[in-house]
Amino acid sequence: MSESTVRFLKHHILLWIVFCVIFTLAALGIELLEGNKITTTEYYGLMNLGFVIIFLEFIGILIMYPMTFFPLTLLLNWQVRSNILKIVIYTVAGGASGLWIFQLLYGDFDNYFVTGYGLNVSTSIVIFSFAAFLYGGVDFLLRTITNK
């Protein structure tokens, strides 16, 4: 393998690991901030399943990266020159993924859990936007380090 191929693989495998850690912590944050408001046994969250739910979220996030942020990262690194614009796009994509994950965990916005327990979707959007912002920063940092 050529040196550029090895550098490419190292960069994206490291980003995959970073993505899994950051987004699993974001999912844990959502579960702690919003999921703990649900006090019924109908919802199997952190209070009922414990850290099994963190493991399940980690597996889902592990699978989600190659389908979402990996192609986005390739596209941005190929097409977009501005690092600030890349980070803004990552942040917006993170907010959209936060919206999607909120719906996966708690159902639609008029669902019993959301209305009955006063869950707030904006918490998920902000946390996952911040997680994606961190991911964009790590991508920039890794590109800076590996291009020296």
TrEMBL record:
This protein's record includes keyword Transmembrane: yes
Transmembrane segments: 12-30, 50-75, 87-106, 118-142
Keywords: Membrane, Transmembrane, Transmembrane helix
Protein name: Uncharacterized protein
Species: Candidatus Pristimantibacillus lignocellulolyticus
